Amino acid sequence: MAQDRASWHVKGEAILDELVQLMNLSAAESSLLGALHGQAASQAPALLEAFYGRLLRHANTADYLKSASIDRLHSAVSDWFSDLFGGCYDAAYAQKRLTIGQVHVRIGLPVRYPLAMMDVIMPFGEAIAQTSAQPDLALAAFRKVLALDIAIFNQAYEDNQLKHLSELVGGERLARLLLTGMS
Ligand code: HEM
Question: Residue 12 has what pLDDT?
């Protein structure tokens, strides 16, 4: 039988605070990224082309874009990318990213797709980080911030699954035990 874990009792906003703490991003790292915000905004059009090119070439992902407003998506993803270089990674930032994850939960998009799309985001962010006056530090900082986003995207999906399974089985502890596959 799996044992209870302290992490199981971290809930809601505390999860976001915990993740921000876990990443241990220093003030110097945050400001290095913040200094690259203009660069990120100028690279956004090229990123959008690569991002939607990848999604439109694959039938199962293109299907989600048929009825979406492409102009709205372009501006939302462009802001999402620029905010990676916003220089402020607090609980409000994490909450904003969680809300974006929840939008994808609600359209019934399997989590593997957004997670796989980090492959498109990563080289753009890394190239921008490398233009910093301190490229090694900026690169390490960018990787932390992107990892934070991956964790938060996934959290939106896990929250939703756990919520529904908990309602079905009558409690979160039992739901967590079931999900270990060992109950
Ligand atoms: C790195 C991965 C991704 C990021 C950063 C991202 C970002 C965003 C953002 C910022 C929004 C606007 C959310 C809002 O309304 O507040 C959005 C909406 C949307 N995204 Fe994504 N997205 C990702 C992956 C995907 C994938 C893989 C698909 C589909 C194949 C997709 C399809 C959509 C659709 C259809 C909407 C509009 C939903 C609606 O308002 O009905 N996204 N995305």
Answer: 85
